[in-house]
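Q: What structure does this chain adopt?
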Amino acid sequence: MSAIDLNLLTALEVLLAEGSVTGAARRLGLSQSAMSRTLARLRAATGDPLLVQAGRGMVPTPHAESLRDRARAAAGEARALLSPQTAALDLSKLTRSFAIRANDGFVEAIGPSLITAAAEAPGVLLRFVPKPDKDIRPLREGLIDLEIGVIGDAGPELRIQTLFRDNWVGVARADHPLLQGPVTPQAFAACRQVGIARRDKAAPGPLELALAAFDIRPVIAASVPGFPAALAIARRTGLVALLPRCMLPAMPEGMASFALPVETPDFTVSQLWHPRFDADPGHRWLRGIVASVCRDLGIKATGRPS
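A:
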């Protein structure tokens, strides 16, 4: 199949609208001889004379008449495809499904507020999908629209926006003996705890590293896949759990939080997306409401702006 010169589409639209080589040349800023050569190429491409001499002027052939509206529509569509998106996004008419990958704890922390914020676009479906690992291929392949969490090695082509900084807190039942006195490293480590299963089982977690400075190892009685499960088990068994501070607003009655007796490093929560969505109005709106909700969440969690 031979290549098609799309410049001929614009020339065809103008020639059929003007009905003359001179008028078309004037509109396109070409010389009359250049416009005549373009008409010759159009005749060869369509297999039709298109414009024929009639006295001192030119008239369209029946085939040219049938092409006039189609040429105008096709040229307009081509201009729209190759022009920046400037039209305002009408959220009331936006119909779209967005796949957001985040761990269960973050979905529980941000999900309700994000769904409320997205209600301004009633045709939008937010699909929260599981995050079994940090593989970035689903983003590259367009299987998910947005990833939220603590980002590892994302690769140079992906886009990252910091949402807020967070840190760790301990949680236990409000009547837990640990909370009846000072929470020292020794008292904390002596409590049976529910931990989060780590992908890298050989690497110690932030709490383990902090307690190691006191030559103390925590007593892990159970390990679960995510923070909501850890919170539920701590509530029903009396174990102590470690949670991101951003989850505290969703903590059920009867539970209490406490500052850890050792310092652990803060961590950064970000959103990650593929550059194919940079200029997409719907995706920009989604990233905007995620950033707004997370900014409020970060302030509530830490008492300070991100």
